[in-house]
Amino acid sequence: MTDTAVAPLISARGIGKTFATVDVLRDVDLDLLPGEIHALLGENGAGKSTFAKILAGVHRPTRGSIALNGKPVEVTSPVVAQKLGITLIHQEPISFPDLSVAENLVIGAAEDGWFSRVPWAEMTREANRLMDLLGVRIDVTRPMRGLSIADQQMVEIARALASNSRLIIMDEPTAPLTPREVETLFAIARKLRDEGRTIVFISHRLEEVRALCDRVTIFRDGNKIATDTIGNLSDADIIRLMIGRPVKEYMHKTGATIGEVALEVEGLTLPGVFSDISFSVRKGEIVGLGGLVGAGRTDVAKAIFGVTPAASGTVSINGKRVSITDPSQAIALGLAFVPEDRAVAGIFRTLSVEQNISVAVPKQLAPGGFIRRAVERAMGEDAVRKLSIRLASLRQPIGELSGGNQQKAILARWLLTDPGVLILDEPTRGIDIGVKAEFYSIIGELAAQGRAILLISSELPELLALCDRVLVMSEGRLTADIPRSRATQEAVMRAAVPRRSTTEGAAA
Ligand SMILES: Nc1ncnc2c1ncn2[C@@H]1O[C@H](COP(=O)(O)OP(=O)(O)OP(=O)(O)O)[C@@H](O)[C@H]1O
Ligand SMILES: [Mg+2]
What we know:
The protein is built from 17 helices and 20 strands. The protein is of the alpha/beta class. It has 2 domains: 10-243, P-loop containing nucleotide triphosphate hydrolases (Rossmann fold); 261-496, 3-Layer(aba) Sandwich (Rossmann fold), CATH 3.40.50.300. The two termini are 43 Å apart. Bound molecules: adenosine-5'-triphosphate and magnesium ion. Residues 19, 24, 42, 44-50, 390-391, 400-405, 432 line the site of adenosine-5'-triphosphate (ATP).
């Protein structure tokens, strides 16, 4: 497939975007062809989501023009985009939580006053038909609130189908999905492509991009660096184009002495969620917790941290039995928990980046009750340097940062608490390849300093590279405890896959 063979569906020319005084996109030319799946790649903050939002009418470009089937168009709002057949499935889903799934599916038409006259029975039938088409089983009369992120995403995709979109942009859609859900999503994307629609796919996972996409465009620092057929580029080419320098290989931590047991849980049980969980993590040790999405790993972490305490079982810190019924007790005992979901991670979207980072250490920040700005600033600057957070200013609201950079800021916050036991839940989700390597080094250093680390991750290579030991959960139970020397992809997967076949939603 070449640009000259097919007339493009979308031609973007000279697209630029300036927020305040910062150029986040510069002079981007890009053609999207009918019947292609086109990947957008780039480091955190490179401008992928911003470009997607410009196509979808969420942002107006500061400069440049867009043509649809050769005719200039002004995509002035998401409603206009919808009418032009352009749908964006957001990085953070934004549906209407109190409306039912079926209602969410027809919401695109609400602006026309059509919504009030929707025949409900017909709507439910249509919604069910779309769900069948997608091969997902969701009760369409249920409110969106309470659906898993994967299911919410499926509803967004169904909405794109319902509105007969010609261009469907998926911004990091696979991050919260299980391998099987990813397969379903890919099958749908391929089907849509074969019908002649255009899919834009944004992801940090190169193997997914290879499996799915026809062409890729690489952004770096707001510039388009290259567009090519995926087959023409090796992984090394792509990484070089994205980052402009080679990525350092992560080496397993060296020199960490494994010490006393820092965290021990015994028989931890929350009926219907997880049962009889026992393990320990020693000082200087990185213990992985693998398993499929929904296996109950996050629930165990939340129980230890006192977010949703277990019904029975015990937790000990440094050999002492403790009773943690509230996160503030956990923090006082030297625990830190970096949750997977940014939305619940206590991100204060309208507060500045530096406020979001320093909020974890009120005593250092405000001895005697008065906030010391200089301390706050120094903490922020230190975090930006250590984790290479990309931002215009530390005073900027954190909500303006790219997804991956928000994640880094939250991690920085927890590192400031100087925890003895650090629980990380999918910490590198949405983080680009370059930063991942840096981030792994940081985890290694933290362990070498004698901290005990429990790392929840769905990425097998990450678990195998980083951990001294890998625990595996399946359907709310611990199914394996594998030492580093015997930890292989197969060993972890075998323990992660549910034994019975009727397992749908067992740990939900
Ligand atoms: N509303 C906004 N106000 C100010 N700056 C913004 C705004 N939205 C995005 N930016 C900035 O634009 C740059 C590009 O952000 P964008 O979200 O497009 O990155 P991305 O490539 O999608 O990154 P990620 O992989 O982390 O999702 C970032 O530096 C970000 O801070
Ligand atoms: Mg993004």
